[in-house]
Design brief:
By secondary structure, this protein is an alpha/beta fold. The chain has helices at residues 36-47, 74-77, 85-100, 116-120, 125-141, 157-162, 166-181, 209-212, and strands at residues 24-29, 52-58, 70-73, 106-112, 146-154, 184-189, 201-207, 225-231, 237-240.
Amino acid sequence: MPSQPAIPPLLSSHLQPASSKGPLGLVTSVLGASANWILLRQIYAALKVPSAQPVEATAGLNLSPNGGITCIDALQSGLGLQGGGIGEVEELLLKAVDEAKATSTRILLVLDGIDFLLAATEITLEDLLDCVMELREDADQKHQHVYSSIVSASADYPLIQRQQSPLEVDHAAFVMSIAHEADVIWGVRELDTGSARDVSGVLRITRGPAIERNERVPGEDFEEKELLYFVAGDGGVRVFEKGS
């Protein structure tokens, strides 16, 4: 496959800096369709903005703390796993934001896979939701450098629709609660017709309820889309419309 641009043309308008402060994006994925490529391109787009720096807390992506990125690897740092509870999580993230703002005036806060805390710790649904919302409120009130936030979470059928176990019920409630506060929702899933050699999955981009409530206004070029994508072995991504 020919070399692909870092930002696929069909996504360029959706990855532009937010026109208003404080937007929240939700990125969902399923087991057979990873959202890492979306998160990487959102981080890349943020790095292209002067004086911008992403701060990422992740359960599955190990980035080195250089090149303008501050990464807290949850598994290596023991984030939320050492008995400190949700207070430890919030304290560590706010400390990272404070350190990042020493060199940046615009910070993108990425909470990648933070829903794993529901399954791996004794942190409750209420505590985790409060943590996410307090991080955003603190960012607005005390940490003016945080410009926008992204939360990524799993949206597999057992976790969202089946809801038979307490974990499934809590996970579904967490994702739906974040979705209700989101400005934009990015969802990746497998093809409905099964696997294909030249298609990795489906990407759907929709306006979140926060936009519909007119709390914030998206960019003029924002358009809801459902696209196909292919992730090559070298990490390049081709995004295209159905039938093209």
